[in-house]
## 1
Amino acid sequence: MSECQGMKEQQLEKRDRQRRAFRDRILEAAKSCFLNYGFKRTSMEDIAKKVGISRPALYLHFQNKKAIFRALVEHLNEETLRQAEMALKEEGDVCDLILQGFERRSVELFALVCDSTHGEELIDINGQVAADILLAGQHKFVMMLTQVLQQAETNGEIQLQNLELDARQAAELLINSTNGFKEAAGTTEDYRLSVQRLIKMFEKAVVNRI
């Protein structure tokens, strides 16, 4: 590779980093607006002002408010999945790792909408605008948990046959149960405690005690 080509690639990489950083600024501003004003009351003008740019400049990056909302949901899904994956790869008791995985994935997402006065509206818009993103995110989390449970069973840490489940079925059961807790939870702490109790029950049922 020539020196000229190397410089061009460095410039392209720098521009790409700058674009990503600016996009992140837009999404962070949009998150603040959606949480504070709700989806319907938030305008492109509100988001542009929060970022510190003009409304026409914002339209150069996103077609409309729904596009921003979808991008934000995708960003939050990717980030919480990344954090959950990191937690699940740490050393330690498998059920403790699973609990941390749920903390970083499910509890973090729940806290965002639960702590907002517009939570119900945002959940509704989520289902209308970004249902496919949420479904894909859940599928990835199922795969992560399945892999961890399979490894733990191979290592002799747990016996899923105690519940007559395979690793994927157990992962789906845990995730579907925690999703159900959201409807009854009044606060983030209520939800967190429900998740903790579920994992504790799961632990008692499947962990091998020497």
Note: The first helix runs from residue 3 to 37.
## 2
Amino acid sequence: MYELIRAAGNSYYIQSPAKIGLVVTGDGEVCLIDSGSDKDAGRRVRRILDENGWRLGAIYNTHSHADHIGGNRYLQGQTNCKIYACGIERAFARHTVLEPSLLYGGYPCRELRHKFLLAQESDVECLTADVLPDGFEMIDLPGHFFDMKGFRTPDDVVYLADCLSSRETLDKYKIGFIYDVAAYLDTLEKVKSMTAAFFVPSHAEAAEDVSDLAQYNIDKVDETAEKITELCKEPLCFEAILQRLFADYELKMNFEQYALVGCAVRSYLAWLKDTGRLNAEFDNNMFLWERA
């Protein structure tokens, strides 16, 4: 873990729970794509920089989930590097209580205020094309979260952030985190048709071709949507839908899974309603979902 692996040319990644991109930009300076989950990840990254005699110039955050921005504050404090994120992601990285608040739907209880959902805040500037290193391309990858971005380097290496989950992860946890299902499916279709010298997804194996994995992720979204629609053959409230999903998929409920899977299921329900597959109504002050 935390092994530095060359993808191609000056483009590397650090093998970690959420892969960290590292690109040598010239004159001994590098940039990072994301920073890992916490201060300890930041320390491990700093050790790699020191061992190679590299200076950290900038961190480009793909999105603001805690496992991607958790090393920001430590590395910025150690190196005085710039940190950039796009749109709403910048606000979330600057005010990190927003992530667990969104997941929970209100002020998060203590069990949700931990480093896996609540990173330390950092001084993040606005990510625009003009602050990228020469030859970098920014790629829109919305759906998993608000304004998620990927990056293509001059070596034709594409860092895909969280738009793909591994087959093993999807088979084990069944329901991946998605904020906007329609946007996510569009992103997956785009990624499925992409070509590059090498792809580096944050939570799947790096590879020369990710088209089959993209289709597998699409299939899992369709499977979850069908499952939810079938459950709603009778009117059900959100809590009942979530309980039956956990039971049918043999998942274990805890605070973190309630927040993460619950938020994703709410996104599915909204998408299924907007596409005419579910109806929603209020009955005796209960919010109920039913197959259309």
Note: Residues 224-291 form a domain with the Arc Repressor Mutant, subunit A fold (CATH 1.10.10.10).
## 3
Amino acid sequence: MRINMNFIKLFGLMIVVMGLYAFSNHRNMQKKVNGINVEFVGDQNLYITQGTVNKLLIQNYGPLTNVSKEKLVLNTIEEVIEANKMVKNAEVFLTVNGELTSKITQRRPIGRVEGESKFYLDDEGKRMPFSSSHSARVPIITGNITGKGLEDAYEILKFINADDFLRKNVIGIHIESEENYQLKFRMEQFVVNLGNIENLAVKFKKFKAFYSKADKDESLNEYAMVNLEFNNQVVCTKI
């Protein structure tokens, strides 16, 4: 039986390549971590600092520099970082230079609850503790704090954050009761009564039209209440 020499050569070459790859991979895993790097993605208001992350890693793993790569379980390190209540997501990887890098996305607060319990509401509507490193400048939520009230306040906050004018000017949401919400503004004395959260887009559109006209007429400081809960009209109460 004639032996195909080309096939034998190809087979031998494959074995050599696989051996070199295995040898190289083994040597690479024997290399040690030569540094720790923490990067924050997006918002640079640091609710968790690089020092806190490093301390978290040391508490769980001890000093990681000079630890061989084969002893690291990157998924587990990610889980340890994500267990911190300020962290939304963590991606941990080793660079070609042997640096252990953590890319961290923080949770983002959009409202601050001031009730019997004090905490932030984040951009997913979840409770987020205050940070000792940074205080967020976000609308303050006061009044009758209930589960339904916070759910509705979150819906209102989403509208506020999606609108440049509202985001710059609304400083507070007061929960009079479930189905009755009021807004406080940075520069104006009046209170905006939203009623419930139905038709928020229409209500805010009506309010912005009113505000534009009243600002042009220089009459904004004449009002104590701007009521948006009635269909197709803005009802104002003067001081």
Note: The chain has two domains: 32-106, 109-238.
## 4
Amino acid sequence: MIAIIDYGAGNLHSVQNALNYIKCECKVITNGAELQEADAAILPGVGSFADAMSSLNKSGLVEPIKAFIASGKPFLGICLGLQLLFESSEESPGVAGLGLLKGHILRIPEGRGLKIPHIGWNSLEYNNPSPLFAGLAQEPYVYFVHSYYLKSDEDIVTASTRYGVKLHASVQKGNVFATQFHPEKSGDLGIQMLRNFIALQGEI
């Protein structure tokens, strides 16, 4: 069973609908006890970094998320769910993220012809191998909605894209996977990524 962590994130139901589409058993969970029963977990997210961290703390989910990841079970962060795994964000100075991965979230710089937030389709360049991209063609197009981007250590970056600056679009460290883009909104390619993630249950 895949747990979808509910802390008020905006794309919760689109993730649930995508998993239902591929007939994956999933459950929206709101507490740590339910999370620990899952075989894998997804932390979705659209919204403010500070509000999201406040919600995770108030709901008592911070330590259960850390314990789940420490257990070695597959974990996937999506969009804001990626950003929260890191140490801090320029969106919310002074607010600590989960700090499970090293890196910082920066504001996408203004540029000629660039609209912020970045909304739309961009191609990915693979940086390091990842089972999330198994069976996919080179430079797949995926869907982004964000105003802030990740800058992390290159050794955990699995794909990047460019929107004025180079954006780290996905990462992996052990059993932790995360994407700045939305697999659940990226058509057949995104669905294949979710299938690849589901297939990791019991393998990591």
Note: Residues 2-198 form a domain with the Rossmann fold fold (CATH 3.40.50.880).
